[in-house]
């Protein structure tokens, strides 16, 4: 697989055309690296599902809250990709490494703030009216991930330099190694083997941190390697830069607020589904686990869109920025066609992967069997928005790359909170069954990406291109 990318990708060459091949060079490794990250999380929950629905549901609930609390910081820092890309396009190569180091400094500064938010997570869990066993599992998983927050913050910042310069193969390789380490650690830490005790859900959290740490070390080793130092002066990029930090905060904070509000809305969705009962909680957990498998790799396309549009804006090539966006759409729709067919024709196979083992107990098996029909319906119906969300992913990434982060923040936050509102009205005001609530969620979500399409078509993002020319 890596040999294929060696042929496809040649470092340092930049053609201003934005065709499918140019997008694939950046997007395909990022799509695969996000797939590896998704597979890590999926395996965590799959292993835990064999212990029982409580452990699987706890990992989903705790993971969502942890992401909601950390995404403000990771979202703000993620604008590093666009800043690096813009400077690469403007041929300011040494500034690329300097921008990245400012992002690392900000990651360390954010750690105390992250620790202060841990009690807030516990308050949220107390509002969910969870069974006692799930609540305890959820707190354990959450606490471990939060106290290992520095690993997660730096792990999210580390790929930004490479995605910004469009050399994403190393990100893919690091994610692949991290995935393998994570899966191996999870198996031994969750179930135990020999002298290693069975740690259950705590083992899943530790395995995640270990995998993320290894992939981060690989990226830093590459960043400081001789070849990258020669091109970007990486070993002499440690100086603090106030102008770069201010720009990163000014443009990145809207992205951080956006991601925080989006994840908070997603956590509210999970909370409301879980509050409808154990069957609804299990069905929605199965659905959201597979939705994650379908959606998260597309973030690789979003990162590629941000990187390419940012680079073309920096190079003052507006036409190429537009072409790269349309190329990303074609790639995304091809991917979504495959995922949609799986959701429509194989939902039973997808759901049964999470069936508890026989020794999980009669209660756990009964909950799964009662939840299974609802999970099949949710999976089939989710196929409707798979194609539409490509518009959201590509155009949101493109608008961020062009510097239009404030509009993306407001539009994305409003979309996700309208989705949460649709669930609340359907399930808690009209008291309709959970599958009707899921219909409302999908219906609202499917229409929202059209606003991102309209924003791009309006051409208002081009004012940032004019700023680049100035």
TrEMBL record:
Major subcellular location class: membrane
Biological process according to GO: monoatomic ion transport
MF-aspect GO terms: antiporter activity; xenobiotic transmembrane transporter activity
GO cellular component assignments: plasma membrane
Domain of life: Bacteria
Location in the cell: Cell membrane
Protein topology in the membrane: Multi-pass membrane protein
Residues passing through the membrane, by range: 23-43, 63-82, 103-125, 140-158, 170-192, 198-221, 259-277, 292-313, 333-354, 374-395, 407-430, 436-454
InterPro entries recorded: MATE_fam, MATE_MdtK, MdtK-like
Protein name: Multidrug-efflux transporter
Keywords: Antiport, Cell membrane, Ion transport, Membrane, Transmembrane, Transmembrane helix, Transport
Metal-binding found in the keyword field: no
NCBIfam families (UniProt xref): matE (TIGR00797)
């Amino acid at each position: 697989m890596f040999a294929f990318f060696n042929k496809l990708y040649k470092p340092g060459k930049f053609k201003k055309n934005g065709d499918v091949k140019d997008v694939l060079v950046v997007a395909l490794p990022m799509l695969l690296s996000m797939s590896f990250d998704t597979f890590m999380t999926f395996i965590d929950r799959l292993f835990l599902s064999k212990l029982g629905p409580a452990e699987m549901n706890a990992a989903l609930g705790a993971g969502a809250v942890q992401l909601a609390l950390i995404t403000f910081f990771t979202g703000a820092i993620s604008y590093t990709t666009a800043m690096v890309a813009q400077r690469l396009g403007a041929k300011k190569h040494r500034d690329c490494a300097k921008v990245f180091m400012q992002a690392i400094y900000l990651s360390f500064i954010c750690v105390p703030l992250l620790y202060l938010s841990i009690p807030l997570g516990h308050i949220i869990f107390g509002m969910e009216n969870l069974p006692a066993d799930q609540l305890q599992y959820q707190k354990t998983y959450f606490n471990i991930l939060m106290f290992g927050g520095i690993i997660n913050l730096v792990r999210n910042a580390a790929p930004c330099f490479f995605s910004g310069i469009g050399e994403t193969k190393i990100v893919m390789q690091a994610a692949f190694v991290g995935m393998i380490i994570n899966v191996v650690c999870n198996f031994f830490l969750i179930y135990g083997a020999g002298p290693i005790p069975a740690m259950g859900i705590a083992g899943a959290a530790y395995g995640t941190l270990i995998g993320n740490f290894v992939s981060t070390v690989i990226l830093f080793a590459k960043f400081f390697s001789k070849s990258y130092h020669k091109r970007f002066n990486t070993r002499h990029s440690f100086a603090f830069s106030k102008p770069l930090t201010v720009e990163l905060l000014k443009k990145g904070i809207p992205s951080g607020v956006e991601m925080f509000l989006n994840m908070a809305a997603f956590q509210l969705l999970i909370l409301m589904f879980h509050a409808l009962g154990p069957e609804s909680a299990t069905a929605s957990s199965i659905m959201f686990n597979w939705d994650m498998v379908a959606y998260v790799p597309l973030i690789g396309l979003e990162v590629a869109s941000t990187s390419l549009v940012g680079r073309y804006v920096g190079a003052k090539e507006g036409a190429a920025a537009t072409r790269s966006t349309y190329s990303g759409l074609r790639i995304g729709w091809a991917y979504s066609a495959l995922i949609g067919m799986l959701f429509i024709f194989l939902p039973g196979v997808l759901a049964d992967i999470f069936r508890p083992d026989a020794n999980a107990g009669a209660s756990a098996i009964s909950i799964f069997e009662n939840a299974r029909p609802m999970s099949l319906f949710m999976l089939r119906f989710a196929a409707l928005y798979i194609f539409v969300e490509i518009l959201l992913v590509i155009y949101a990434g493109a608008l961020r790359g062009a510097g239009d982060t404030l509009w993306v923040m407001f539009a994305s936050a409003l979309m996700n909170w309208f989705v949460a509102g649709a669930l609340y009205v359907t399930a808690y005001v009209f008291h309709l069954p959970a599958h009707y609530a899921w219909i409302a969620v999908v219906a609202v979500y499917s229409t929202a990406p059209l606003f991102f399409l309209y924003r791009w078509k309006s051409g208002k993002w081009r004012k940032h291109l004019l700023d680049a020319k100035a």
